[in-house]
Write a structure and sequence with these properties.
- By secondary structure, the chain is an alpha/beta fold.
- The chain folds into two domains: 217 residues, Spore Coat Polysaccharide Biosynthesis Protein SpsA, Chain A; 159 residues, 2-C-methyl-D-erythritol 2,4-cyclodiphosphate synthase (60s Ribosomal Protein L30, Chain: A).
- It is built from twelve helices and 19 strands.
- Strands 1, 4, 5, 6, 7, 10, 11 and 12 form an eight-stranded mixed beta sheet that branches. A five-stranded mixed beta sheet has the order 16-13-19-17-18.
- Helix 1 packs across helix 10, helix 5 packs across helix 6 and helix 8 runs parallel beside helix 10.
- The longest helix is centred in the C-terminal third of the chain and has 13 residues.
Length: 386
């Protein structure tokens, strides 16, 4: 698998937008505009890392916008957008990815479909951009003040994220330093790269004016749709004197084996939460090959999944968890487990169901070789967004 980094350009001052803070930090729905952008990119299963390029004066605002998303430290940008992108590329060159997606921080509604199409095109091209046709008739005004029609079949509106093979776009940006080019595909063309074009999405619009912002707000506050996610996990039982289930330590004559605390219930819950926004699985966000997560409390995994949901404007409605095992008995701990899960998800206890069942001594669970868990979650998301 090719490693992909998304570089979010968010160092601008938003002069056309106005206001007392840069537009990317203005609250859209219930979170900063930039948080929506960062959350959507972080949730994509084929993006390995998200890095933001910001203005040096915006550190505290950025930290608030990115809280809980688990992102690396931001990169400081330059005077112009082109400078900021180049500095961002140079910053990640020490550990270069195979691919880079460069995205405007003020496009908070980028969908997985657009990202997929750009990444697919990079299988055969050094560069790829999403773009839209122009539906209106176009006119060009001559020096005499008279108009002439322009063939709109050859005119497209470029969007982001624009995708590139990393080494190619880094070299192109180095060569284009000092030039004034409007976007990264222009830099790529300046460097002699062939740029493929894929279908964009009207909902992936850039917020430039206050009218754009009002339109974005109306999409977030419009009709809602219900989504359901399902997660399953299994862990082996071994030596030990307790197991952790739903974040609660339960005495037992065995322990669960795993890279983290092996909380099979919270692992299933994490996958169910990620499933509601098509954000891959727990292994993609918290790989068992990473020593950072060795022995980690699984509540950290659920917290990250919840942060990704909320960055999408989603609200958790309920969660239902079923634990499969012959022992330990769950009944005496159910209330504590319910309270713990409800607290993590930020919902009432009455919206959390925790059940347990055996397999009538059948299979590996019946032989007390392991425990399994299923989780189902329902959420409500803005219906007009990808």
């Amino acid at each position: 698998m090719k490693r992909c980094v998304a570089l979010v350009v968010a160092a601008g001052r938003g002069q056309r937008f106005g206001g007392d803070i840069p537009k990317q930090y203005k609250v859209l729905g219930d979170a900063a505009m930039l948080r929506h952008t960062l959350g959507r990119l972080s949730a994509h299963p084929d993006i390995d890392e998200v890095r933001a390029v910001i203005h040096p004066n915006d550190v505290s605002q950025y930290e608030s916008a990115a809280k809980g998303l688990g992102l690396a430290s931001p990169i400081f940008g330059g005077q112009e957008r082109q400078d900021s992108v180049r500095l961002g590329l140079e910053a990640i060159a020490a550990d270069p990815p195979d691919l880079v997606l460069i995205h405007d921080g003020a496009r908070p509604f980028v969908g997985a479909g657009v990202i997929d199409r750009v990444l697919d095109a990079l299988e055969h091209s050094d560069a790829a951009i999403p773009a839209l046709t122009v539906p209106d008739t176009l006119k060009q005004i001559g020096e005499d003040g008279h108009s002439a029609s322009v063939d709109r079949s050859k005119i497209w509106r470029a969007q982001t994220p624009q995708g590139f093979r990393f080494s190619a776009i880094l070299q192109a940006h180095r060569e284009a330093a000092g030039q004034v080019l409007t976007d990264d595909s222009s830099v790529a063309e300046f460097g002699g790269l062939t740029v493929a074009m894929v279908d964009g999405d009207e909902r992936n619009f850039k917020i430039t004016t206050r009218a754009d912002f009002q339109h974005a707000s109306s999409l977030l506050h419009g009709a809602l749709e219900t989504r359901v996610g399902h997660g399953v996990d299994v862990h082996k039982l071994g030596e030990g004197n307790s197991v952790t289930l739903c974040g609660v330590l339960i005495p037992h004559d065995q322990g669960l084996e795993g890279h983290s605390d092996a909380d099979v219930a919270l692992h299933a819950l994490t996958d169910a939460l990620l499933g509601t926004i098509s954000a891959g699985d727990i292994g993609r966000h918290f790989p068992p090959t990473d020593d950072k997560w060795r022995g980690a409390a699984s509540v950290l995994f659920v917290n990250r999944a919840v942060a990704l949901l909320r960055a999408r404007g989603a609200r958790i409605v309920n969660a239902d968890i079923t634990i499969l095992g012959e022992a330990p008995r769950i009944g005496p701990h159910r209330r504590m487990m319910t309270t713990r899960v409800a607290s993590i998800l930020g919902i009432d206890n009455g919206r959390v169901g925790i059940k347990a069942t055996t397999t009538e001594q059948l299979g590996f669970i019946g032989r007390r070789e392991g425990l399994a868990a299923h989780a189902v979650v329902s959420v409500q998301c803005p219906a007009g967004l990808p």
